[in-house]
Write a structure and sequence with these properties.
With about 550 residues, this protein is mainly β. The protein folds into 4 domains: about 1-205, no CATH class; about 210-315, Immunoglobulins (Immunoglobulin-like), CATH 2.60.40; about 315-465, Chondroitinase Ac, Chain A, domain 3, CATH 2.60.220; about 470-560, Immunoglobulin-like (Sandwich), CATH 2.60.40. It is about 0% helix and about 45% strand. The protein is built from 3 helices and 44 strands. The strands form 9 sheets. Strands 1, 4, 6, 7, 8, 11, 12 and 14 form an 8-stranded mixed beta sheet that branches. Strands 3-2-5-13-9-10 form a 6-stranded antiparallel beta sheet, with no helix packed on it. Strands 16, 18, 19, 22, 23 and 24 form a 6-stranded mixed beta sheet that branches. The chain starts with a strand and ends with a strand.
Amino acid sequence: MIRKSIVIIFHIVLLVASNLGAASLEVTARNIADNQQAYSISFGTITGAASFINAEQYIELNMVAYTDVPLWQMDIYTDNGSGQPGHQKGGLINVANNNGRLPLSWKVSTTNAPSLSGNPNNAGMGWYWLKDKNDIDIPGTSANESWSAAQAGRYTTVCYGGVNKAYLNDGAVAPSSLNVFVQGDFTDVPAGEYRGTIWFEMYPVLAVSSITIQHAPINSIVGDKNRFFVRAEMSSSWDILWANLHYRIDSGSWQVKRMSMAASVKSTRATGIIEPAELKGASSLEYAIETYDGWNDPCWWASKTTPQTVTIVKAMLYNGMVAGELTIPDGNPEDGATLLNIPPGALNGPVDISIRQLDVNSVPVNSYGIAGYSDKPFNAYDFLPDGLVFNIPVTMTLLYYDLDNDGLVELPDGTETQVNETDLLIAWWDSFQWRMLGGVVDTALNTVTIQTNHFCIYAVFAGAPASADFYRPKEKIITPATPGDNDFATFDGLAGSDFSITIFDMSGRKVRTIAYPSLPQWDGKDDGAAVVESGVYIYQFEADVNGSIKRISGTITVAK
């Protein structure tokens, strides 16, 4: 079997739009052996079985980029006409019958002696199938193999650029002189002589939009113990190739981290993370976001000269609060937040309130020793002034961390645990031990919410109540007639649940019913809001004890 192939024509299409700067392109064939000028590209005479064979010549391209075009592109292709049989029409055509086809592939290089190993079936070798402008998709295939798909994916692109600049299709800077090498796939190609034309088309791309970055700026965070998250939505007419988070801490040196993102797509979310170890002791952070799509110049949200500044504070101060919502910003704008909602009437007058995040390693551990409870809290806050009592309940929401959204809680420093977020509850420190309140878990916002009536240290713990004693009030005696001192008894673990507590005197007469959404506390008053007489009172309620609903009872002494 004898097969001959030759490319005898290189055709240049140079499009210049009106009012756009001029560009030029020269194409020259050269022998690979001696770099001397040639007038065609040939594979010579191929005998016997063969597969991929490199041509004996390469194509030297000398170009001058457009001087006033924001985006231009140079494509390589054949144009064999729609009359060719089959869905794929690229390559050289059999001279005798005008039907047989020799598929070609191409590779661009900045040197005239690159490695020519591999073929377009080997990923990462730089070879691409030479597409024909008349190629259409092959029915039944998963990939769109048409000319339009190849052009959109840049498999046809030798280089591209903007005003006085050029890049290869992998984003590397392209010099004004490039070299294109050609390869033929002789597998199952019948004997005969094959010829054809390779076209180079350099043209302005006028309809490509620029990159856009959408990001909600972060102005301040409380504490230096959290991971700081920067997330941004990015989009372009072309695939986003990468995104960088540039940042510096306390006006130090600029650092850069590659942001994680989905595989290169036209619209993606990128995430950059600064770890707590980097933020320890810091008072400020500056950041900017950079992304690149391989076509436009790198796009910035803010910049290193005008960055976004984040203030890192130890506590949030709210002066003269009477009512309203107080929010504690953390380093992640896409989850919930620790917050306090004070309804009108909860305070008698303006109060200066401070909320400070605590180091979970510095607060007391859980003293119950109940199996299933974590000894260390997942988050803790000190609400000041300590001991402040509200006239009516306030709503408190504490944040926990599940940044990878796997349903398992993380410590503030990012350490993964095996605690399920649905098992979380809020506790308060009574100066001697943790009092488990309960709470409503929001797994979408990563928060636990309760109602409470006083300030102290509150923390997020995990576990499930295991005994009746867990729920019983630790206060055996209350003195409601002495405001501010031992005013109420708290039933632990019931906050956020559909509870109902009944209080009886020793004769069995019902004195008070306390039910959700009220707080699970008794303040020594009857249903008419009058302080009861001194004496012993019986409480009864139902709760989950080791997986079964049990009736729990006990006594509380009221002393006026």
